[in-house]
């Protein structure tokens, strides 16, 4: 988009925000309902676009993109009244007779930059929070999922008021152009490489940022597990969207005493879910583009293949692949995989697995499979990550009751449900005093007042 067009959109949103219309809770409710009806009514169009961009199976598209967004909308509509209500807080003795309260207020005009892997949901879920909190918003979808980006532009820009909500499509140049403008918040989802540039641009205007990033989320599989169930859940979470999920288990640390049994169970689960030839499976997505395909192909020979390894460039197909005997120093264990390649690394003691996780940057998620309560507590208490999930994978992302976000290198800030509303709000502290009378204790001359002040404060 031309720079002057971007300037015009930002300016018209700023003017619209300053008119105060979006502060009105009923206006917000109306917009959220409109969004809900739009999305529910056009879900087929969205599923179709996701299929074109990533060959996303309809169930995965519906569950992880549309249903999640509709859930966020329903929840925001249900809670809007209570989230926006001023809350009285206590006034300590020294502040009496005044009353104190905290009031959530919108931030202003916000920018949402989204990635390509869940291109609809990762653009629209933060948009819902921004609208619920009373902001105007511009969404910049990823250029790598152009069909979904186009559908979002069609739905939002055409059906919503562009002075309130706009979709600006384009690549890095468009993003940079947008970032030259002053926003009141920037919500970025993507790689840590680009996040650094976003934060640098934001610093010019002292704009606060939320950074939803990725990294290598480990999965620890202890020997005290139902191996079959653990393998199935890991395979499901890893190969959902062909491994292109920020919260996918990146690699598995498995107790060496169950390593072979677990590898066999993983192999069985892959065949059970996707058949002997996953290329023919309608339930398996494709890699987003050739450059990611080539990057992932580079990982395939970095271990012994337990299952998978087949690929076809013309179809951007890489089979669900599990690698054993992977060197922890190999590139596949250094970079976020973000694709259907699962390294298995054996460990000989539980503390060794914990130490391995702690020797690396804080991940977006840690997954642990064990029925041993002591080990569950140990892992909970001795590690840090954006989220932590015992005996399952990915599911924490789907709850609007759980704040979602990273820590350290996996990001900063939170989204989903109330946490998303808070991200796009400023909590304003209010004090209201009376002019009916005046206590002179605070005024000079102070003379004999110190003992009284000591008693009061
Ligand atoms: P990316 O960083 O390449 O791109 C993300 C967005 O930034 C795109 O819209 C892109 O156009 C834009 N962009 C590119 N260059 C830019 C620049 N110089 N300045 C400003 N914006 C620019 O990320 P991606 O490849 O789309 O997504 C993959 C990454 O996102 C992975 O690391 C993954 O883990 C992470 N991710 C995180 C979450 C989460 O919720 N934490 C969710 C999904 C993906």
Helix content: 40-55%
Q: Which structural class do the helices and strands define?
A: alpha/beta
Mean pLDDT: 96
User: How much beta, percentage-wise?
Assistant: 15-25%
Helix run count? 15
Termini separation: 58 Å
Q: Using the coordinates above, name the CATH class of the largest domain.
A: Alpha Beta
How does the major sheet shape up?
7 strands, mixed
Number of strands: 18
CATH fold name of the largest domain, please? Answer: Aldehyde Dehydrogenase, Chain A, domain 1
In the predicted model, the low-confidence regions spanning at least 5 consecutive residues are none
Q: What is the CATH superfamily classification of the largest domain?
A: Aldehyde Dehydrogenase, Chain A, domain 1
- Strand order in the sheet with the most strands: 10-13-14-9-8-15-16
Shape: globular
Main attributes of the structure:
Aldehyde Dehydrogenase, Chain A, domain 2, 18% strand, binds nicotinamide-adenine-dinucleotide, 6-stranded mixed β-sheet, Aldehyde Dehydrogenase, Chain A, domain 1, 7-stranded mixed β-sheet, 457 residues, single chain, 15 helices, globular, 2 domains
